[in-house]
């Protein structure tokens, strides 16, 4: 079996820094001890921030040409790819992820996303004329009006446990390409894999202080990264509850804040597409165990055919094999820890108390002496007020709801505090697309899905602020400066 990453401490301003305290990393698949990791002291996390400030203000990175930054970052990605086997083994060990997800989605997909992000940045204008009418230019004695895009400064990148490497890549790469200095802080549940960024930064020759990786077992460092006056921007992916706290912490220093938060997305099946409901519902929990912010965990079907849909989804879920990460025949692994498993149990119980019926699953998976496994679960929900329809469970639990007509389907889908990524299935593509335009979410997938460096993603309402990926995701790491230039004569 491939060994995991050997590093056990933070990478700060070009040095590997040990702390006095350690915290344990656990394998969710069998509850085994993965490693003891040295927690970065608060004083060292502050040094990572101040060194990021120093390097940014010095221009050692931001004043390189875009082509020079691209060359170095491609080298960083090459180093990550060369250590891919070790990185995949590490992701699987600390997150309990199936190997196919760790390799195919996080490593291969993440590297493709990162490389495409570099190419997208290079294709974009970062200084361009403003379309000011000629008569206004003349009246103001202006020869040229220019819009210039410049780096924000120091960026705190705070990533979640469910896709640590992919989320880091979609924050770190555009931020660095834009000329920022970055402090990466991964989830305490999955800190090891992100230490690969420190090794890759060393190998690629990124100037010390431009990219630091700090690991901790609590939240002291994360709070410092969202409050310190030397930090100009916080980019966070995680729960809405934590996102609210970050907004409050960042407010006194008026930081830029980009948040990709929770979701309670819907997948809507038009009457002519109900034959796809089993496959579509299965995709919610397969591979990730439902631990994805974009998971469409509310399944909306025509009311008069709801029993048929419930039966089809239950049959599909019965075919999902739950197993260890290295079991290639398994479609679903564990959730991240005991608290996540308990949360699934609690919401199933609350759903039943409010009139739901368990059509399949609903309890801890059988056959495992250890590990945080929960059965893929199908709930027949009476209405959208059910706790399982209102709350992000972040586990392999979905609910099926009936709608009277398409107006009712839109009402139900939009009746949530979230708005991240909905889905619509319909053989009549025009009708499905018309419905998609009425949904209040940052993305809507009609009969398909796309995750690309060229396509933005993000949330409406309490699912977040700003966008990641796409041109909007790059601009998020930039300030806009207007230059008004006149002839002195």
Automatic annotation (TrEMBL):
EC main group: oxidoreductase
Organism this protein belongs to: Amycolatopsis acididurans
Active site as annotated: 260
Keyword vocabulary terms for this entry: Oxidoreductase
Keyword Chloroplast on entry: no
Alphabetical list of InterPro entries matching this protein: Ald_DH/histidinol_DH, Ald_DH_C, Ald_DH_CS_CYS, Ald_DH_CS_GLU, Ald_DH_N, Aldehyde_DH_dom
Protein name: aldehyde dehydrogenase (NAD(+))
PROSITE patterns: ALDEHYDE_DEHYDR_CYS, ALDEHYDE_DEHYDR_GLU
Pfam families, sorted: Aldedh (PF00171)
SUPFAM superfamilies cross-referenced by the UniProt entry: ALDH-like
Start and end residues of each Aldehyde dehydrogenase domain: 16-482
Family to which the UniProt record says this protein belongs: Belongs to the aldehyde dehydrogenase family.
Catalytic activity: an aldehyde + NAD(+) + H2O = a carboxylate + NADH + 2 H(+)
Keyword Iron: no
EC number: 1.2.1.3
């Amino acid at each position: 079996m491939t060994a995991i990453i050997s590093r056990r401490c933070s990478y700060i301003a070009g040095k590997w820094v040990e702390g006095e305290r350690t915290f344990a990393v656990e394998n969710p698949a069998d509850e085994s001890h993965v490693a003891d990791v040295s927690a970065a002291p608060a004083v060292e996390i502050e040094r990572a921030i101040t060194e990021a400030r120093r390097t940014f203000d010095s221009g050692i990175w931001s004043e390189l040409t875009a082509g020079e930054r691209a060359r170095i970052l491609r080298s960083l990605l090459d180093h990550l790819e060369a250590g891919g086997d070790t990185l995949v083994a590490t992701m699987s060990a600390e997150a309990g992820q199936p190997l196919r997800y760790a390799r195919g989605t996080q490593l291969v997909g993440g590297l493709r996303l990162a490389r495409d992000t570099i190419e997208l940045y290079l294709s974009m204008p970062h200084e361009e004329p403003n379309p000011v009418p000629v008569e206004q230019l003349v009246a103001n004695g202006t020869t040229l009006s220019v819009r210039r895009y410049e780096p924000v400064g120091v960026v705190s990148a705070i990533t979640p446990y469910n896709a640590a490497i992919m989320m880091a890549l979609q924050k770190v790469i555009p931020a660095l390409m834009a000329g920022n200095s970055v402090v990466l802080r991964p989830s305490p549940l999955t800190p090891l894999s992100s230490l690969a960024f420190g090794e890759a930064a060393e190998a690629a020759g990124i100037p010390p202080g431009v990219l630091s990786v700090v690991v901790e077992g609590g939240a002291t460092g994360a709070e410092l990264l969202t409050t310190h006056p030397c930090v100009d921007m916080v980019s966070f992916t995680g729960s809405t509850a934590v996102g609210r706290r970050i907004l409050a912490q960042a407010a006194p220093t008026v930081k830029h804040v980009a948040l990709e938060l929770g979701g309670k997305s819907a997948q809507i099946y038009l009457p002519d597409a109900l034959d796809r409901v089993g496959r579509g519902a299965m995709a919610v929990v397969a591979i990730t165990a439902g631990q994805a912010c974009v998971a469409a965990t509310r399944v909306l079907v025509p009311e008069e055919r709801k029993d048929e849909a419930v039966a089809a989804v239950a049959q599909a879920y019965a075919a999902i094999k739950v197993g260890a990460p290295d079991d290639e025949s398994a479609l679903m692994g564990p959730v991240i820890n005991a608290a996540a498993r308990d949360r699934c149990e609690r919401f199933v119980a609350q759903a039943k108390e409010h009139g739901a019926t368990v059509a399949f699953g609903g309890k801890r998976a059988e056959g495992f002496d250890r590990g945080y496994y929960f059965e893929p679960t199908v709930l027949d929900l009476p209405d959208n007020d059910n706790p399982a329809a209102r709350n992000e469970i972040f586990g392999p639990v979905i609910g099926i709801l009936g709608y009277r007509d398409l107006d009712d389907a839109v009402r139900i889908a939009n009746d949530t505090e979230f708005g991240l990524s909905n889905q619509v299935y319909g053989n009549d593509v025009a009708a499905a697309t018309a419905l998609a335009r009425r949904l209040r979410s940052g993305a809507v997938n009609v009969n398909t899905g796309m995750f690309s460096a060229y396509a933005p993603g993000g949330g409406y309402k309490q699912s977040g602020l700003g966008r990641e990926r796409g041109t909007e995701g790059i601009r998020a790491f930039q300030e806009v400066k207007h230059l008004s230039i006149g002839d002195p004569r």
